[in-house]
Design goal:
Chains A, B: This is FAM20 C-terminal domain-containing protein. The structure is a homodimer. Chain A is an alpha+beta fold. Helix content of chain A is about 35%, strand content about 15%. In chain A, the strands form 3 sheets. The first copy, chain A, has a 5-stranded antiparallel β-sheet, with helices on both faces. In chain A, strands 5-6-7 form a 3-stranded antiparallel β-sheet, with no helix packed on it. The relative contact order of chain A is 0.14.
C-alpha cells in the first residue's frame, strides 16, 4: 500500500506541484507544507518535495526529522548494495524508509597515501557527511541528506541481515572487536575488514532517493572525466581549447547545464574529490534540472595539498553562476569563513560527539 | 663450472670437514680459514662454512665481505620469487651470488593494525634485518645474513629484469614515484604498490642458502603452529598437557630438538613473530642439527603489546637450553641491555644512515 501511495503522491504532489508552481526557485521555496504531508514519514516527505531545482528546501522543516530518523530510528534490515566497487549497505527502518550506509575505514588524521591513484582511494564515511554539509552551505542542496551514526554491528547488521554473503564475512578480531568485510570488488577482504570497537562502528547513513521505478534517473558521463588509467591522459588534459567543443555539445550548449557543472566542480575542488566520473539527473525533469551530487566518499582524503586539476573545467570555460560566485565571496569574508561555517554545521551531526567529523587541517584547507 | 665447483667444495670442505672436526661447537669455531677459500666469493665461502651447528661462525671474518656484497655489489638480475604469498625478489650479483629482496612496505612508526590476524600482516624489510641481528646477539647464528640496501627500482629492478610479469606492474605514482606490485597472492595490487622515493626503495637483502639441489632441506611443521583460522583454536591452545605428547614424539623425544625449538620460541617472542608455522633443517645433518630461522618478515609489527602466547611451548614444557638461559640473563644486565646491544648492532647496517632500523619503542620493548 505504501509503495502505491508513494508512487501516486510522488507524481501528484512533487512533480505535479512543481509544474504548477512557478519556475523560480525562490517561489518554490515559499510553498508551505500542507497538513497532509505531516502524516508522512520524513523520508517520504523528502521524496515528495524533490523539485526540478533542488533535493530539499532552504530551511526545510523536514530536515530535522529526516536526519533524526537516519541517526536514531531502529534498523530492521541491512543488506549489501550490489554493484558498487566498495562495501555499502542498504539499511531499512520500520517506517519503510531506507538509507545507504558507508562504514568508517580510515582514521580522521590519516591522509590518503600520496602514491595511490584517485581510483584506488578508500571511501570515507565522514566525507559523505561533510559533503552533504558543504553542498548545503554552498546553497546547492543537491546531496541527499546524510547523518552520522554509531552502529552496533552485531545488533544492527549481523543479527538482522538476511544477506548470507554478508553474514558469512563477520568475525572477531584478535583484540575482540567484531569485524566484517562483505563482498565487493575492492577492499572486501580480511585485510581490509571494517571493525567495531568492540561492536560500535562509525558510519554515514544517506537517505535513499526515490526508487528508480518511481523516478528514473539519467547518468551523464562527465566531459572532464579522468582517464582512470595510470598511464593515459584524458582529452581535457592535453587540449587547451577543450571547452569550446563541450560548449557546443548538448546539453552544455544551452540552459544552465554548464554553470550547474561548474557548481559541482567547485564543490569537488573544495573537498578534493577527483572521482566525479559521472553525474545523474532525474529523467523526468529533462535537461533543465539540477545535477545530483551523489557518491562523495572519496572526498576529504588529503588536506596538505590542493588538487588544481579539479578546477580545469572552470579554468578552461571561464564560466561560473553568479549566485555561486557571490556565495564564494561571502564565504571568504572573515565573519563567514568557510571553515567556521563548516565546523558549526558539522557540529549538528550526531557523530560529532564521538569525534569532530573533519580534522582541523581539513577545515583549514577549505579556506 | 662454478656450479660444479660449488657442489664439490660444499661436500668436501663444509660437510666433510664438519664431520672430521669434533662435535663441539666451540671447537668448530676455532677452525681457521684455509688460504684456498680466500679466493671464493663471500657467498660461496658462506655456503661452504655452513655446519651442523650453525650457519656461520662466531666472529666470522666472512661476515663483513658478505654483508658488503649484499649492500653494495652491482645487481645484474631481479626476478620474482615464486610460491610466496607476498612480493619477494631474487637478486643476482656478478659473482653468481644471490639474495632475496623484501621491499619496505610500512613506515617504522606504524604498528600492525590490531584488528589484523597474524596471517594477514605485512612482511617488513626491517624485521628481516633486525631478526638477523637479534638471532646473532642471542648466539644462535641460525638466520642467513641480511643487509639493508637503498635499491634504485628503475636501474636495479625494472631495467634489468627478465621477469615480464614483474615488469608489467611498474608504474609512476601521482607524485612521480616509481612503483611496482608484482604478482603474488596477497598485497600484490595497485592499492598495495611498493614505491621508490622517487626511485629509491629501502629493502632487505638476505643471502640465499645453497640451492636445494646441493643441500636439500627438510620442512617441519611446528607442533605449536597456530590454527591460521579466525575461528579455530590449535590443540596446544586447549590442552594444558600438550607438551607431554610432543616430548614423546620424534624428533622431540631425544637430542636437542626440544631446546632448539625453545631457542626459536624465545627469538620469536622477543620480536613478536606469531607466524612460525614451519621450520627447516638441512636434510644431510639428520635430526641432530640446528633449526633454520627463516622468514622473519612478520616480526616487529607491534611494540605496545607483548604476545605471551608465543611463549606457550616454553611455559608448557618448562625446558630451556642452559646457554640460552645464561645469555638471556646476561642481556638483562644494565651494561648489556638487549635494546642497547641491538641498537649498536643495527648501527652497522647500511640502511641505518637512512633511518634507524627499529624505532625506539621497538628497542625498548625488547627489554
Amino acid at each position: 500500500v505504501l509503495g502505491f501511495l508513494s508512487v501516486t503522491l510522488f507524481f501528484l504532489l512533487s512533480f505535479g506541484r512543481e509544474a504548477e508552481v512557478s519556475a523560480s526557485q525562490e517561489a518554490y521555496e515559499d510553498v508551505q507544507w500542507t497538513s497532509d504531508s505531516n502524516s508522512h514519514p520524513p523520508w517520504l516527505r523528502f521524496h515528495l518535495n524533490i523539485s526540478r531545482w533542488q533535493l530539499y528546501l532552504h530551511r526545510d522543516p523536514n530536515m530535522e526529522p529526516l536526519t533524526q530518523q537516519l541517526a536514531t530510528h531502529r534498523i530492521v534490515s541491512a543488506v549489501q548494495k550490489s554493484g558498487g566497487t566498495q562495501l555499502k549497505l542498504v539499511m531499512s527502518f520500520p517506517n519503510y524508509g531506507q538509507a545507504m550506509l558507508k562504514p568508517m575505514k580510515q582514521e580522521r588524521d590519516e591522509e590518503t597515501n600520496y602514491n595511490l591513484y584517485y581510483f584506488s582511494d578508500f571511501e570515507r564515511h565522514n566525507a559523505e557527511i561533510a559533503a552533504f554539509h558543504l553542498d548545503r552551505i554552498l546553497g546547492y542542496r543537491r546531496v541527499p541528506p546524510v547523518a552520522g551514526r554509531l552502529v552496533d554491528v552485531v545488533k544492527e547488521i549481523k543479527d538482522i541481515t538476511t544477506d548470507r554473503k554478508l553474514a558469512r564475512t563477520f568475525f572477531t578480531s584478535p583484540v575482540g572487536n567484531v569485524c566484517f568485510y562483505g563482498q565487493c570488488s575492492y577492499y572486501c577482504s580480511t585485510e581490509h575488514a571494517v571493525c567495531g570497537r568492540p561492536r560500535h562502528l562509525e558510519a554515514s547513513l544517506a537517505v535513499m532517493l526515490p526508487d528508480l521505478s518511481l523516478a528514473s534517473r539519467r547518468t551523464w558521463r562527465s566531459p572532464w572525466r579522468r582517464s582512470y588509467s595510470r598511464s593515459k591522459l584524458a582529452k581535457w588534459e592535453t587540449e587547451p581549447d577543450y571547452c569550446s567543443t563541450v560548449k557546443k555539445t548538448p546539453p552544455y550548449d544551452k540552459g544552465t547545464r554548464l554553470v550547474d557543472f561548474m557548481d559541482m566542480v567547485i564543490l569537488d575542488f573544495l573537498m578534493g574529490n577527483m572521482d566525479r566520473h559521472h553525474y545523474e539527473t532525474f529523467e523526468k525533469f529533462g535537461n533543465n534540472t539540477f545535477l545530483l551530487h551523489l557518491d562523495n566518499g572519496r572526498a576529504f582524503g588529503r588536506h596538505s595539498k590542493d588538487e588544481p586539476s579539479i578546477l580545469a573545467p572552470l579554468e578552461q570555460c571561464c564560466r561560473i553562476r553568479r549566485s555561486t560566485w557571490l556565495r564564494l565571496r561571502l564565504l571568504s569574508l572573515p565573519q563567514y569563513r568557510l571553515s567556521d561555517v563548516m565546523r558549526a554545521s558539522l557540529f549538528s551531526d550526531p557523530l560529532h560527539r564521538v569525534a569532530p567529523l573533519l580534522s582541523e587541517p581539513h577545515l583549514a584547507a577549505l579556506n
